[in-house]
Design brief:
The complex is a heterodimer of chains A (112) and B (119). With 112 residues, chain A is mainly beta. Helix content of chain A is 0%, strand content 51%.
């Protein structure tokens, strides 16, 4: 039982490049989330999904797109990376009912 | 306005002593939940404890307890008998309900408190 996994663990991009971060969970959870963590600011919600085929904007959605084509996967895309998107990205999942969110190990992204 | 405020950027405690990490929150929603997460230097987010706004008793999980004072809007984490492995960043977070009463579990985090346990 792997829980929540994220791919890749580290990535360096040049400004203007694109990439996709993959989050996968094997707990059959309905809800999935993408957060970013910047120094001194805690975690902020980028986008979330409440089921396969659904997505919604969080607190800081600009510059990101997401897709949830399969229940177990939640993809975060950067179409044209900017240095302001340098951050650590966390994916999380949970089911309705129990309050706990299960977090992935994080992806450290640097945009130069 | 800050919804979650952690006013202690850093705290120090002696091993085996107890420590309290402060968290205050701001919400007008009667239904909400409060969480504490631990983030060690390795970076993962570890769930510690949860308190629902309607829970009558303070939550406890082993050495962790949540001192929930609803009228003061505070949800302080108390760690008893500190251990060296408790050295980490600690985040307080809140889940509110959307209009219509469903939050889908979205969390708002505080800025965190770095706890250092001295031997």
């Amino acid at each position: 039982n792997a829980g929540v996994t994220q791919t890749p663990k580290f990535r360096v991009l040049k400004t203007g490049q694109s990439m996709t971060l993959l989050c996968a969970q094997d707990m059959n959870h309905e809800y999935m989330y993408w957060y970013r963590q910047d120094p001194g600011m805690g975690l902020r919600l980028i986008h979330y999904s409440v089921g396969e085929g659904t997505t919604a904007k969080g607190e800081v959605p600009d510059g990101y797109n997401v897709s949830r084509l399969k229940k177990q996967n939640f993809l975060l895309g950067l179409e044209s990376a900017a240095p302001s998107q340098t951050s650590v990205y966390f994916c999380a999942s949970r089911d309705p009912g129990p309050p706990e969110q299960y977090f992935g190990p994080g992806t450290r992204l640097t945009v130069t | 306005a800050q919804k979650i405020t952690q006013t202690q950027p850093g705290m120090f405690v002696q091993e085996k002593e107890a420590v309290t990490l402060d968290c205050t929150y701001d919400t007008s929603d009667p239904s909400y939940g409060l969480f504490w997460y631990k983030q060690p230097s390795s970076g993962e987010m570890i769930f510690l404890i949860y308190q629902g706004s309607y829970d009558q008793q303070n939550a406890t999980e082993g050495r962790y307890s949540l001192n929930f004072q609803k009228a003061r809007k505070s949800a302080n984490l108390v760690i008893s008998a500190s251990q060296l492995g408790d050295s980490a960043m600690y985040f307080c977070a809140m889940r509110e309900a959307n209009a219509g009463g469903t939050s889908y579990g979205k969390l708002t985090f505080g800025q965190g408190t770095i706890l250092t346990v001295h031997p």
